[in-house]
Amino acid sequence: MDEASHESPIIHRTVIYFCATRVQTGGAAPRGGAAPVGALPPVGALPSQGGQLPPPKAPQVSGITVQLEMPALWQQFDQLGTEMIVTKAGRRMFPTFQVQITGMYPAAEYVLLMDFVPVDDKRYRYAFHSSSWLVAGRADVVAPSRMHFHPDSPACGAQWMKQTVSFDSLKLTNNLLDDNGHMILNSMHRYQPRFHVVYVEPAPDSYFNAHRNFCSFSFPETRFMAVTAYQNHRITQLKIASNPFAKGFRTADGQDRLSNSAQLATRCPKDGGAEHFIHK
Fold first, then answer.
1. All domains of the chain, ordered by start, with CATH?
2. Its Gene Ontology molecular function terms (predicted)?
3. Spatial CB neighbours of 243, under 8 Å, sequence gap ≥ 6
4. What local confidence, expressed as pLDDT, does residue 205 receive?
5. What is the pLDDT of residues 226-247, one digit of tens each?
6. In this predicted model, what pLDDT tens digit does every residue of 181-223 receive, in sequence order?
7. What is the 8-class DSSP label of residue 145?
8. What pTM value is reported for the model?
9. How far apart are the C-alpha atoms of 221 and 97, rounded to whole Å?
């Protein structure tokens, strides 16, 4: 299933916003931070498909493959039910979302983005007696949508592919009035991180091809519950054991118990959805 299909107008508008910003600033692009969806061009400004299936993706994105870094660590958290702290000031994610990218055109320019979408329409609470999450009701009003630009965007494909791409500067907040560009999430709600690759077409009217020039990827094991304090003590223990910045909380010298023998990756098929496969 293409998880990005219902959100594609937002991605389209982000591409248009990016292109418009480049024009207004003489070629400069927004560097890092978040683009508020409310500030993007309206959906009505997008080229209509007339009810037809969208055309195939541009060759600059159709062959891209994205591989999640530290897959064993993500899977270990996922088995326990990953939790990510959100604060008013903003908190970085751990594990950090990092990927390796292949299949880009080396000389073409790309913008890399992330956003977070609710997994469902429910709000949760943690039952300590059963060590499990329970549905507590319907979800709160959806927090303002934002897209986080990787701070090195735009860059040529050769640069993106030569090293691990890390979103270590991205922060999560529960402050609905945040003006620092952090990603706004509701506590006690589940989210799916999504990663987007946007080809920056040099043509002045490239916004007409916005629907062809991006590809979206998601990894189910990166889903998490947004919390203001860790609920599952096993998550707390695993964070302390595996986070190098939390070594002061360890009671004994930890060893790397994680194996990265299997690398989970997704590739961009013709319709822009994410296909999952595993390299042994």
1. 10-19+56-249 (2.60.40.820)
2. DNA-binding transcription factor activity, RNA polymerase II-specific; RNA polymerase II cis-regulatory region sequence-specific DNA binding
3. 94
4. 74
5. 999 999 999 999 999 998 776 5
6. 999 999 999 999 999 999 999 887 777 778 889 999 999 999 9
7. P
8. 0.78
9. 11
